Amino acid sequence: MKYNFDEIIDRSNTASVKYDLRKMIFGTEQVIPMWVADMDFRTPPFILEAIKKRAEHPVLGYSVRPDSYYESIQSWLLRHHDWSIEKDWICFSPGIVAALNMAVLAFTKPADCIIIQPPVYFPFYGAVKDNGRKLLLNSLKIVNGRYEMDLQDFEQLCKKGAKMVLISNPHNPGGNAWTKDELKALADICIKYDVLMVSDEIHCDLVNMGYRHTILASLSKKIASKTITMMAPSKTFNIAALSTSSVIISNTKLRLKYNELVQGLHIDMGNVFGAVASIAAYEQGDEWLSQLLVYINSNIDFLEKFLREKVPQIKMMRPEATYMAWLDCSGLGMDHQELNEFMINKAGIGLNPGIQFGKEGAYFMRINLACPLSTLKASLSQLEKAVKEYNYQVQKSDSTVA
């Protein structure tokens, strides 16, 4: 079946965070929303059909996740990531952000030190600070247009007594598909200093042409025993609203501790439609994902070429994974507040300001490319026009001063 990713779907007035909160987030509804990480593509038909079929049953009482739920996850991970896991390793969470917070609560104590690697997905900060833990920053470095881990600094932080590191793999917002060597080097330090690794791998399926995702826990049994892996079908198949994620823990002692917290909070049951959708996604989603990745890669190519030819002041850190791109806007000569206001009020585009991901992202913006090409073209046309007008005003001001 050929899937249509060019289709324009009106998402307004559907209680959509991305569309219906534009006024609250940006101060105006007159922006093309290309921020929050969900897709503007139709949720795959085989998922919608599975949900509809279940909804036809007249009773929506308490439910459990059937064996097929776990088997579909196991099969998907083996097919797509060459990772063989046991059914018992799969734990439940209503979402990855919830799982991050529960991992912090389950495996650390108040005032314990936890490392994150900014710029990074902003809920990482809250998972540490909001739970009374101490935040340690191991800032990533840009080397040849790509983020690299500062392992020397990382080891020093581990020496200071860090208990945990939160890892974004693939990296959000930079788009790194961390290599085996990069992950192993990090893991070796963690094992040396007894630091628990919490790996957010929600974007693991969204790897772009020429790259491959490496599941941290797949590197060795020893590394797996010190790793909490988090993933979900939500980004891959555009079903974030169904609040169904997996926390995969091979270490029995850690798994019991995590499940004890989840059950104590009474959030372990989930919802029937999330389970149904997950099964359908992982059992039937191979071809859909294959076509999706081709389309997203094409959008990445288009954006890269457009910026190079039309708006050279903005440079893209080409994403190896995820459907977001990290835009270096330092060439515009604006501070982060001016940059955000410019994108909203002049370009008419709703993006994620880079400062949200840490001070390291102050001159960046994150753009979501999981949209029809026509939407991307419209937003870039507005951006080009706004930058030309801005350049004209700057040149006019400079000539007046001279």
Q: What does the overall shape look like?
A: globular
Using only C-alpha atoms, the radius of gyration works out to 22 Å
CATH class of the largest domain: Alpha Beta
Helix and strand sequence: HHEHHEHEHEEEHEHEHEHEHHHEEHEEEH
Overview of the structural elements:
The chain is an alpha/beta fold. It folds into 2 domains: 17-42 and 286-396, Alpha-Beta Complex (Aspartate Aminotransferase, domain 1), CATH 3.90.1150; 46-284, Aspartate Aminotransferase, domain 2 (3-Layer(aba) Sandwich). The chain is built from 15 helices and 15 strands. The protein has helices at residues 17-20, 22-26, 45-55, 67-81, 96-107, 123-129, 151-159, 180-193, 221-224, 234-237, 252-264, 272-284, 286-310, 336-346, 373-401; strands at residues 32-33, 90-93, 113-116, 134-137, 141-143, 146-148, 164-168, 196-200, 227-231, 245-248, 315-317, 324-328, 349-350, 352-353, 364-368. Strands 2-10-9-8-7-3-4 form a 7-stranded mixed sheet, sandwiched between helices. Strand 7 (164-168), helix 8 (180-193) and strand 8 (196-200) form a beta-alpha-beta unit. Helix 3 (45-55) packs antiparallel against helix 12 (272-284) and helix 5 packs across helix 11. The radius of gyration is 22 Å and the shape is globular. The mean pLDDT is 97.
Q: Which descriptors apply to this entry?
A:
402 residues, alpha/beta, Aspartate Aminotransferase, domain 2, seven-stranded mixed sheet, four-stranded antiparallel sheet
